[in-house]
Amino acid sequence: MTPLRQRMIDDLRIRNRSPGTIEAYVRAVARFAVFHRRSPDKLGPEDVRTYQVHLIEQKTSWSVFNTAVCALRFLYRVTLQRDWPLERLPYGKRGRRLPCVLSQEEVLQFLGAVEPAASRLALATAYATGMRIAEVVALRVQDIDAARMLIHVIGKGNKERIVPLSPVLLDALRTYWRRHRPSKPWLFPGHGPGGRPICTKTIQVACVRARQAAGLRKPVTAHSLRHSFATHLLEAGTDLRTVQALLGHSQISTTVIYTHVQRRVVPTTNSPLDAIGRLPDP
Predict the structure, then answer these.
(1) Share of the chain above pLDDT 70, in %
(2) Same domain, 78 and 113
(3) What CATH number does residue 8 fall under?
């Protein structure tokens, strides 16, 4: 490992960035260096711009493009302390797409097709709480507070939040515990050595198989259950700020997307024209 890479990793750790973020940033900077065949500390703003053009020409996804921008901004602003105007490293604009949302009937249909039991319950937990799948697999037994009907969640950047524990989910967790006795500390332990929790890739593979088995045409992923949780809460009348807190969004603008996918609310909303009652004669 080069001294520059180690220093960047240390800078990220000091700022409490998650292991996933650290890995993504280091990988993005490594690709930048490979593209130019030079160390990043020998490169400048025009080299960054050239690389961004390259990513666009390669039709890189929005997420990969902006991860590269975030990583390079951090490298040059924090680790290398370069006094560059940040507008020289612009973010890409994300195409606006509505998230995949299941109806409640489709949620039951999907979960009923998930195998094995641990994956099924992990996905059910994602829907019941709105947690990210990475947060679900990291749940420890001690995070379930049955007395207060709460779940303690460690989110992005090690930010903590509390979400309600559904009585239906609690019953399912107790049944799961009696039948499978998962090894502590993880609620959903993995099968490999090292005492790690179940891998998110294992959950995603179970999602693909369940979607096919259930005959669903929607592009269902584990994150679709989080989207469905938020949408169903809004449809039931939960206010946007509460949904924001439950999802762990730092900005309410991230939560607003769900106001565009409330399929039960939209058809029952009256037009202001209805209050007038008539139109002028054509």
Answers:
(1) 85
(2) no
(3) 1.10.150.130
Crossing angle for the helix pair 167-180 and 117-129, to the nearest 10 degrees = 160
- Quick: pLDDT tens for 54-76: 988 888 888 888 899 999 999 99
Q: Is the peptide bond before 90 cis (omega within 30 degrees of 0)?
A: no
Active-site residue, 180 included: no
Which residues span the domain enclosing 159?
Answer: 104-266
Q: Quick one: 52 and 156 in the same domain? A: no
Residue 210 lies in a domain: yes
Contact 17, 157 (CB under 8 A): yes
79 with 9, same domain? yes
Q: Which tokens is 243 given?
A: 């949904």
- Residue count (the chain): 282
Catalytic residue list contains 196:
no
Told to judge if 36 belongs to the known catalytic residues of this protein, a careful annotator would answer: no
Residue from 36, 156, 180, 209 carrying the catalytic annotation: 156
Catalytically annotated residue among 17, 211, 226, 227: 226
**pLDDT tens, residue by residue, 136-172:** 999 998 999 999 999 999 887 778 888 988 889 898 8
Please indicate whether residue 226 is annotated as part of the active site. yes
Does residue 27 carry a catalytic annotation? no
- Selecting among 17, 120, 132, 232, the annotated active-site residue is 132
Same domain, 112 and 248: yes
Question: Does residue 258 carry a catalytic annotation?
Answer: yes
Domain identity same for 27 and 147: no
Residues 190 and 123 in one domain: yes
Backbone angles phi, psi at 140, to 5 degrees: -105, 160
Q: What's the number of domains the chain is made of? A: 2
Question: 109 Cβ partners below 8 Å, 6+ apart?
Answer: 214, 216
